[in-house]
Design goal:
290 residues; alpha/beta; Rossmann fold; 2 domains; five-stranded parallel sheet; four-stranded parallel sheet; 12 helices; 9 strands; 44% helix
């Protein structure tokens, strides 16, 4: 694949659900060398970029925009379009989490939700509706439901450190088990439950998809190799087109029933193939130890 790297000056617009980790993300980005501006109205985005001389100084700016007082998505989109005309690369990073996790975080911190409705669940539901369009158009969605602060730092560092931003598109592949829930932040999700399940093979049951016997079984099964071949062809078609639209990060989910065997083996094979093509691909097995 012919991938083009970019070292253009860039702006990260950090937004998302209250309680999903925006403040933590802002601190991490500061540690990565970003100038961070909190609670910036979208109409002032262009002025903030000019004030920090982003295009000329090749500095990196992160602005945190939240739902306090409403979030005019149209104004934000207009501001981003204006910046891109000026040659400033802009990325929207959306922090999300499951509703029950957000409720738990507010209860632990004993803080009111910024929307201030009668109950926290009502506030979360209203905010989710308010941000739905923005989440749909975000360049990167990070689900923090199962991430601690160190894992969030690793995710942001992998995607947005200065060294990484100058590289070609990064592809993150994650195996998972559908019985534990579908990843909320995956751009593409592939279901491999149609493949024979090693769980029902006594000598393979206690192994995982990272073990060679399981990998051989999954890839050698009816449809196993053909599936990977077809996904490989699809990604060869999609990745350059995603990148031509300015997307620098692609998250792929591969799911089976429990996340132990089939999804793990397929995810590992996809990473191997992408890496062999010179693509910066990483793999994570969400449910391997469950």
């Amino acid at each position: 694949m012919d991938l083009v790297a970019t070292d253009a000056p860039h702006v990260l617009v950090v937004t998302g659900m209250s309680g999903a980790g925006r403040s933590s993300a802002a601190k991490i980005l500061e540690d990565l060398g970003y100038t961070v501006i909190d609670n910036l109205p979208p109409t002032l985005l262009s002025q903030a970029v000019q004030a920090h001389d982003i295009p000329e100084a090749h500095e990196h700016l992160a602005v945190v925009i939240d739902s306090r007082g409403g979030l005019p998505t149209g104004e934000l989109r207009s501001a981003i379009t204006e910046l891109e005309r000026e040659g400033v690369l802009t990325r929207i990073v959306f922090l999300d989490a499951e509703d029950n996790v957000i409720v738990s975080r507010y209860e632990e911190n004993r803080r009111p939700h910024p929307l201030g409705l009668d109950t926290i669940p009502e506030s979360i539901d209203a905010e989710r509706g308010m941000l739905a369009e923005l989440r749909e158009t975000a360049d990167v969605v990070i689900d923090t439901s199962n991430l601690n602060i160190h894992e969030l730092r690793e995710r942001l560092t992998t995607q947005f450190s200065e060294d990484e931003m100058g590289r070609p598109m990064r592809v993150s592949i994650r195996s998972f088990g559908f019985k534990h829930g579908t990843p909320r932040d995956a751009d593409l999700v592939f279901d491999v439950r149609f493949l024979p399940n090693p769980h029902w093979v006594p000598e393979l049951r206690d192994l995982r998809g990272t073990h060679q016997p399981v990998s051989d079984y999954v890839l050698g099964s009816d449809g196993g190799k053909e599936f990977v071949d077809r996904v490989d062809e699809l990604l060869e078609f999609l990745i350059p087109r995603f990148q031509s639209e300015g997307k620098s990060y692609l998250s792929i989910g591969v799911g089976c029933t429990g996340g132990h065997h089939r999804s793990v083996a397929i995810a590992e094979e996809l990473r191997r193939r992408l890496s062999a093509q010179g693509i910066n691909a990483s793999v994570r097995h969400r449910d391997l130890d469950r």
